Amino acid sequence: MSTMRSLPLLVLFACTTTPDAEKDADTAALGDSGAGDSDVDTDDTGVLDPAEDPFDITAEISDYVSTVVIVRWTTEAPTAGRVEFGTSDAYGHVTPSTEVGTTHEVLLLGMTADTEVHFRVITEGATREVPSPDLTITTESLPSGLFPTRATGTAASWPGGFQVVPLQGTTYAVVILDADGHYVWYRFVEEVGNLMRAFMTDDGKEVVYCLAGPQGQLETGKIVRVSMDGGTVVETPFPYIDHDMTALPDGTIASIVVETRDGRSADTIVELAPDGTTTEVFNAWDNWDPDAIGVFPGEMNWTHGNALDYDPVEDAYYLSMKSLGSLVKIDRGTGEPQWAINGLLNEFEFSDGGGGGGEPIAMHHQFEVLDGTILFFENGPMGREYSRAVEIEYDVEARTAHEIWSYISDPMLYVFAKGDVHRFDDGVTQVVWSSSGQIQNVSPEGEVTWQLDLDLGQAMTFVQVIDSMYGTR
Amino acid sequence: MVLLLLALACAKAPDGAAADTDGAADVPAADGSVPLTDANNFAYEGVLDAPSLPLAELTDVALEWSGLTTDLRCNALDPVADIDNTALLVFPYLTEEEVEAGLSDDSLDQADLAVYLSYLPGDTTRLNLSNMSFFGTDSEIEGRFEAGSGTWMVLLTTGTEIAVGARMMAFLRPTVGETATEASVTDGCPVLDFTADLTTLAHVPVLRDGPWRLDWSALTRDGHGGGFEPTRVDGVMVARFDLTVQDLQDNFLDLESLAAETWRYTITSGTVLDLGAASGPSDPFPGFDGEGVWALALTCGTCPNPAPLFLTIVDPQ
User: Fold this and answer.
1) By C-alpha distance, which of A128, A388, A381 is closest to B144?
2) By CB count within 10 A, which of A386, A460, B51, B284 is most buried?
């Protein structure tokens, strides 16, 4: 658990230069000054109810994440409350409201390091809202090892501009970057292993990442949950987890888990329920015979699952398997494959001549199933010298498919490990050139609208785009 | 940490520090503050000239380094004990000269690199490139090692971090008509040529007995000419030399081995260090109480270029 320190507001006031914050920190002064400065509807009569005024406001920087501010306050009467915050007294950010009570704590998330943060507490009383005056605190410096990124262009495609990025290479860390490429959250990963997937939970309370064991030691795999203040870390051993995991709406985490039989390995999907129980819902060994479907005899990892997604509407999984070159839809309830596209398991006729024979999509990694189309990150064979994002339109009933869009970077990039894609609502596609340490947002016409680059020696794996630092629900 | 930062934000300019217009002081501040500025920093320019080995294309290649007894900085090297990792890097759009220049000034992006493969050699000094992989991704060397396919470079490193800890490097040049399939990497000296300027920098005055609150927040340039990034700093080194500053400049690559005494401290974040209270891995700093030349460096243990980001000469008073 996090060890929190209490920073007296008086100290905060003493060092700030804004006129409002130079006022004394006692409760009455907060209420009075807040009424005059606020654009919040505080009181029609001009008389404030002390029972609903926030008092004993404290603010401190997390011991674990130097960009995270912890704000606490109390009220005499039970109220809800929230905090508006930002880099000026115009704020621009707001926390979710607290539960009704007399003691409150929120995190100010999404701020950059070494930044003066303006904030005010707003109690949400039964009849009106009461703001505190403008207060300030300065976030601390980033830790050594988080090297600068370089972002160019405009990240207009998603409102928050945040993304959860697992870093591999010189630095092993899960970080959240803003649209300017600044670090707003981080956790260093000290354990030896293969940092693959990280995501913020839907409720915005945690970042979860999976760490596959190093080669030959997959039994040491684990799933790690980290609270947003960085102080609470819960590790769940998850032997043989590999490449990817995905969250279900109820908090269940489904993962690709490798199972070895007679010296060869294939993939299963194992669910980790919120209560800690695990359930295998799919096993490749039960569905295909590697020799019968034409897997190269020397391929020891004959499925090589490398990307997993869940469709809550269909209650189905989508599993990408590199060795098979196929994407398979799997019914969650029965564990039965429903259809497979591309590669050795292909059931579709590609009108542009590809499909199982031509393999138009080679060695794909992450994908996104859209409305009638599938977006792939296609690594391609090494000799081809380039990777690409490719979208195919498909008809499950007719079992037909054809390519409708693709994007190749200029100059061409070949991604020899990982790779990810995401389609924004405005049609822009995010392409994560993982091993090249580059992310691009690309318009349908192929124009790069935003790009982020990392130093030599630093790569990323799979990326989660998030609109808010406070989750989606 | 919060309180410290707040306190710094409130602090007045240090009394007694006679700063010049460049921010470099002539006498130490009475309160022990030691501001480090660009005027105090050394200037360094390294030039790499790695061997380029023509080899048969479209075939597997053996790499052998049993004769490698000096590294690219001309330090002695044990080809078994000192080589922890072998790495193969392919830069598809850069020439050998551009790769050398980019490594010298830390200007390469990861996107410049198309392939990174590695192999942990253990006690061997020989491997086939086809043995290299990256988290299970094979090299497919026979099909890719082709003339015109970019610049291929092998790194022999101490430690296993990507592009860090290079002891020797060589370019493997797939060449039409060439028949050699073995790349023998031998003497690393002098792959790295350099110029370093330690004689024209402004010395940093410090109190001989402390306190010493080092503050490098004002730095804007590193010693290699690039922008100074505080998060690259992960160490502070203080060293005493029984040599002249000119000697240090002339033997810059051997500074660590030439030091009479060395103290190292870990930086986890920020731009301030109370040297008297600094921790690990060295013992507590005892003070500038010995004769000779004193140097102070800010180091980056995870940067491709091992030269310090900041290095200055200290004048204890």
Assistant:
1) A381
2) A460
| Binary contact (B93, A437; C-beta < 8 A) | no
- Among B235, B242, B289, which residue's Cα sits nearest to residue B263? B235
pLDDT above 90: residue A152: yes
When CB atoms are compared, the residue of A137, A169, A382 closest to B162 is: A169
> What pLDDT is recorded for position A11?
27
pLDDT in tens, B244-260: 999 999 988 888 889 99
Rounded to the nearest angstrom, the minimum Cα separation between B210 and chain A is 25
List the single residue in B136, B232, B270 with the smallest CB-CB distance to A215. Answer: B136
Cα–Cα distance for residue pair A359/A349, rounded to 1 Å = 11
* CB < 8 Å to B136, chain A: 215, 301
CB atoms within 10 A of CB B307: 25
Contacting residues of B for A454, CB less than 8 Å apart = 109-110
- Give A157's pLDDT tier (boundaries 50, 70, 90): confident
Q: Which of A15, A170, A417 is facing B9, going by the closest CB pair?
A: A15
Query: Are the Cβ atoms of A138 and B9 closer than 8 angstroms?
Result: yes
- Please report the pLDDT score of residue A362 as a whole number: 81
Question: Strands of B182-184's sheet, edge to edge?
Answer: B126-128, B62-64, B182-184
pLDDT for residue A224: 97
Helix (H) or strand (E) holding A10, with range, is helix A9-15
Residue type, A409: S
Q: pLDDT tens digits for A63-83?
A: 999 999 999 999 888 889 999
Instruction: Name the residue among B110, B163, B233 with its Cβ closest to that of A436.
Output: B110
Copy the structure tokens of residue B59: 């075939």
Alpha-carbon distance B165 to B88, whole Å? 14
Question: Above 70 in pLDDT, residue A4?
Answer: no
Question: What is the per-residue DSSP string for A416-463?
Answer: -S--EEEE-TTS-EEEEEGGGTEEEEE-TTS-EEEEEE-BTTEEE---
In this structure, what token pair is assigned to residue A157?
């495609």
Taking CB atoms and an 8 Å limit, are A145 and B2 in contact across chains? no
> Would you state the structure tokens that stand for residue A293, as one six-digit string?
């479907």
- Whole-angstrom Cα distance, residue A289 to residue B25? 76
Task: Mention every residue, 6+ apart, whose C-beta is less than 8 A from residue B241.
Answer: B247, B248, B255, B258, B259, B260, B292, B293, B294, B295
- CA atoms of B17 and A99, how far apart (whole Å): 53
pLDDT in tens, B148-203: 999 999 999 998 776 678 899 999 999 999 999 999 998 878 788 888 999 999 99
Give B-chain residues touching A438 at CB under 8 angstroms: 109-111
Percent of chain A scored above 70 by pLDDT?
Answer: 87
3-state secondary structure of A259: strand
Beta strands at A448-453 and A429-433: parallel, antiparallel or unpaired: unpaired
Q: What integer pLDDT is reported at residue B136 of this predicted model?
A: 60
Give chain A's radius of gyration (CA, Å). 25
Q: Of A456, A167, A147, A218, which is closest to residue B87 (Cα–Cα)?
A: A456
Cα distances (angstroms) measured from residue A324 to each of A258, A383, B38: 15, 19, 57
Q: To the nearest whole percent, how much of chain A has pLDDT over 90?
A: 72
Side chain identity, residue A53 = D
Cβ-based contacts of B268 with chain A (< 8 Å): 143-144
